Amino acid sequence: MFKKIVSLILCAATALSVSVTSLAAPSFEIVSEAWCVADAKTGQIIIGGNENKKMEPASITKILTCAMALERLDPSAKYTFSKEAASYDYASTHLAFVEGETCTVEDLLYGAMVESANDCAMGLADAAAGSQLDFVRLMNEKLAELGCTGSHFSNVTGMPEMNHYTTARDMAIITKYALSVPGFETYFSAWEWTIPETNKNSERRFGTHHAMIVGSENNGTFGYDYATGGKLGWTEEALHTAVTAATDGNMELICVVMKSKHKNAKYKDSIALLDYCFDNFKSVEIPVSVKKSELNVYEDENLFGKMTVYPMASINVLLTDDVSSSDISVKVNIPEYCQLSEVSSVALEVSFGKKSENMSTGSFSVSPEYHIVKESSVISSDSEMKNDKSTFRWWIFILIPLGVIGAFVVIVLIIRAYNIRKYKKLRRHRHYRRLGHDR
Fold first, then answer.
1. Which of 33, 66, 103, 344 is the most exposed place for a label (fewest CB within 10 A)?
2. How far apart are CA 317 and CA 177, in angstroms?
3. Lowest mean pLDDT among 8-17, 102-111, 402-411
4. Are 85 and 41 within 8 A, CB to CB?
5. pLDDT of residue 199
């Protein structure tokens, strides 16, 4: 029934615009103040509204916290809470960890993602960087690396704080990165977890607050069968925020809604947006010609290393029926050198030559596969190459004369063998002739 309604009113869809991208809005009502849906594989924003507006994220901040911590920590490792990590606002969501309490990093990851516990997020930051302050610095460096130009984080929990903000677009990019971190999806999709008894506390059990990821069988109202993971947030300032990942088997999407006015609105908006995109978008393969190339990477004025960019045969772009592959152009942007902080700018720029009322036609970038070799390895490699080249030239001067002599010897031996065979044959003929005369 929903699909029929969408198809009947699709012609009434209107285009929203912001300073950077051309945004399309579905014809049904979205009550969240900012929202977008992105391709989880490429980061392409396929539909959105106010997606570049700076907003307070609340606890969806923890998506970046957990992903970065997971890159730096072994989930099975033990962590003992410091005084700083155990200091939190008791009015906020927490699991009552105290100074000196020991648990595993895995417990902290589940606690931060499933229960949204602020003390668990603080513990992850402390374990990964030594303090929240140092971890936040790393978070902002990661935001710059990912190209999240509308974001700045001041803490690891998402609690209201000056200069702690993001955009719906940036949250989609952050989530795309997080899903690429090995193991992250395990915590992002979890329904429940039990922290066993510790040296300071008894066993603690908790379950997800994200109604969509448990499926329709377990939640007939908002359970969403395509959902594969998600994270919620809420503060009085941010209101309700939600990030949901979903797949129908053909497309993998990330839906972000921010500043939803009541708790059910975030689910209604997310389900409507995801249904719209699954019903109206298709994946189209666009050929790309990228040659394997190498460029120098600098850290300020010093050579950091060399980066090899590998070829890409094609990329997949999500399109509605009113946009075709002929409306898309792909520009290859591979400079001769770049700064380490600008590595993400080495990308394929995908742009649209046609506007659409049914989808966003703002340009987006796709990073080709690359590998950076640090300077010390480069120097060692160059030295080995020089030695190899020197050895190669030396053997050339030896092998060429030897080859010529060898060839001459072979020819002489062949001629000699031929002459010997010819001489033996001649002797046999003479012998037979003598035998004939004797008779």
1. 344
2. 18
3. 8-17
4. no
5. 97
DSSP state of 226: T
Calculate the average pLDDT of the chain.
86
DSSP for 85-139?
TT---TTS------TT-EEEHHHHHHIIIII--HHHHHHHHHHHHSSHHHHHHHH
Instruction: Compute the residue count for the chain.
Output: 439
pTM over 0.70: yes
How many other C-beta atoms are found inside a 10 Å radius of the C-beta of residue 308? Answer: 13
Q: How confident is the model at residue 380 (pLDDT cuts 50, 70, 90)?
A: low
Cβ neighbors of 287 (< 8 A, separation 6 or more) are: 313, 314
Question: Does pLDDT of 313 surpass 80?
Answer: yes
Residue 18: how many other CB atoms lie within 10 Å: 15
- Which DSSP symbol is given to 166? B
Domains assigned to the chain:
2-280 (3.40.710.10), 285-368 (no CATH)
Site of tokens 């969403």: 224
- Torsion angle defined by CA atoms of residues 67, 253, 169 and 363, in that order, rounded to the nearest 10 degrees: 120
Phi, psi of 83 (to 5 degrees): -65, -40
**Residue 238 burial class via C-beta count within 10 angstroms: exposed 0-12, middle 13-18, buried 19 and up:** buried
What token pair was written down for 436? 């004939």
**Residue 239 zone, left/alpha/beta (φ > 0; ψ -120 to 50; rest):** left
What residues have CB less than 8 Å from 428, skipping those under 6 apart?
A: none
Tell me which residue of 1, 11, 8, 2 sits closest to 322, measured CA to CA.
11
CA gap 121, 114 in Å, rounded? 11
Largest CA distance in the chain: 132
Distance (Å, rounded) from C-alpha 51 to C-alpha 62?
A: 20
Take residue 351 and report the two structure tokens written for it. Answer: 């742009």
The tokens of 389 are what?
Answer: 């080249």
d(Cα 231, Cα 64) in Å, to the nearest integer?
Answer: 11
What is the rounded (10 degree) CA torsion for 158, 159, 163, 164? 10
